[in-house]
Amino acid sequence: MYDLVIKNGKLVTPDRIYEADIAITDGVYAAFLQAGSDAPAKEIIDAKGNYVFPGIIDCHAHLNEPGFEYREDFATGSRAAAAAGCTTLIDMPLNNDPSLMNKEIFDMKMGLISKHSAVDFALWGGIVGDYDSQPGSVKNNMKDLVDLHNCGVAAFKGFTCPNGDLFPTVNMGNVRKALEILKPYNALCGFHCEEFGQVLEREKEAKAKENRTKEEKIRDFLDSHDVWTEYVATKNVIDMVRATGGRVHICHVSHPMVAQVVKDAIHEGLSITAETCPHYLGYTEDFVFEKGAPAKCTPPMRRKEDMEKLWDYVLDGTLSCVGSDHSPAADEEKDNETKDIWQAWGGLNSIQFFLPMMFDMVVHKKGLSPSLIAKVMDYNPAKVFGLYGKKGAFELGFDGDIVIVDPERPWKCSQEELLTKGHVSCFDKEEGKGAPVCTVIRGKVVAEDGMYKEEAIGYGEFVRPVK
Ligand SMILES: [Zn+2]
């Protein structure tokens, strides 16, 4: 007698789609059986006509706890994630106070968030630098990196552009040092790549312009974060990989010119991986002009031809992961009436429509196989972030995570109904087809038909990298 059997579904893997029944016992995949097996189980879910994925991993999410719970906390962010089909999220170390930069903060953060996560979670640790500190003063956390690695963080994140005192920018000295320190542990270091000097100077110049309309300010904002800032920072970080032999992940690549640099580095044999996000694959500068403050993020959305070309790099495997980069805000911080693009919070409320948007784009708009989703949102993130062995594939003994997606089910984002704390999203009124109808984590149903289960809150567990 199995605990749970998902029957008659179409299992989606990176290579193929096939019909089979899945049996889960004691929280792990216990058997893969011929479709229609009638295997005895305490609970049976019929997935006929639907796709079945081994969960969805969001490798890039900001849930803001501790420190900015007025924007989002683990309960609200993770319940939205569960409803959206996400079974594991990897939480960022910033937009926190304190940022996750040493073992003491790790212990404190775990004590808070493990009480009320609705999905399994791993953590990014922080690399904080001393870009703008005076000679002799030390802000960086180089001495804490190995301890943090031993705590079980899945990766480390650093910021190459101006980012405020809570998470100081890394300079290339910090990047090089961090890679040297973490190389013996084969630990992964991810970077937000926009070059400090260009962003600082160009923003300063743009903000000094007088009598700008709302539209002109958006143009100024986009120009001050143009592709050259992302390109130069990415090249610099890749050079530090060349210098150290370290392992790097380039976060949220927005532009084909940047993706090409990553591709060349991978071909050279450097240990580089990279991700992009749904908003760079389906949305453009025009969307920022249309939506204003709610659509502000960095790097910003690019031109249509750049967006189209970015797909080539997802298809050829250069951009091997797709994360949400959910970075929530309080409603007033994204209010288009009272905030211009400079004053608005930079980050999107996206976690609840991350999978439906990708499914609609991949399967319905592009006519591609759902296998691409299993690749960039399951298998590859599990491999890159060390979760493979537990997560990311239909393998016996892996965690019994399941997302059942009805490929024809229509969805529409309505920001009033979001399960996140904030209710302003640039994706309000966006619609498409293909939505999760059931989310299962370690054999337990945590969400159904777009709504989380109350008992899921607190069920989510910390996932330590397997190696
Ligand atoms: Zn981010």
UniProtKB/TrEMBL annotation:
Its cofactor is Zn(2+). Pathway: Nitrogen metabolism; (S)-allantoin degradation; allantoate from (S)-allantoin: step 1/1. Gene3D superfamilies: Metal-dependent hydrolases, Urease, subunit C, domain 1. Keywords: Hydrolase, Metal-binding, Zinc. It comes from the Bacteria. One of its GO terms (molecular function) is allantoinase activity. The keyword Zinc applies. Its EC number is 3.5.2.5. Pfam families: Amidohydro_1. Residues 51-446 form the Amidohydrolase-related domain. Homotetramer. Belongs to the metallo-dependent hydrolases superfamily. Allantoinase family. This is allantoinase. It comes from Bariatricus massiliensis. The lineage of its organism: Bacteria, Bacillati, Bacillota, Clostridia, Lachnospirales.
